[in-house]
Structures are given as structure tokens and as C-alpha cells.
Design brief:
single chain; transmembrane; membrane; transmembrane helix
Length: about 35
């Protein structure tokens, strides 16, 4: 159970990091276009 919890935490953390990086990338792209 502990291992599953650790894997889930890493999985969620990677998804959140991916969303944040993608969001910032889109914002930077929009700023450069305008």
C-alpha cells in the first residue's frame, strides 16, 4: 500500500508539473505573438 501511494504521488506530481510547464509555454507563446 505504501509503494502504491508513492507511485500515485509521483504520477500526480508529474501531471501537475506537465500542466504548469505547458500553461507557461502557451502564455509565453501568446506573449511573443502579440
Amino acid at each position: 500500500m505504501g509503494l502504491a501511494f508513492v507511485s500515485l504521488s509521483i504520477y500526480l506530481a508529474s501531471i501537475i508539473a506537465f500542466l504548469i510547464i505547458g500553461f507557461r509555454y502557451l502564455l509565453n507563446g501568446n506573449v511573443k505573438k502579440q
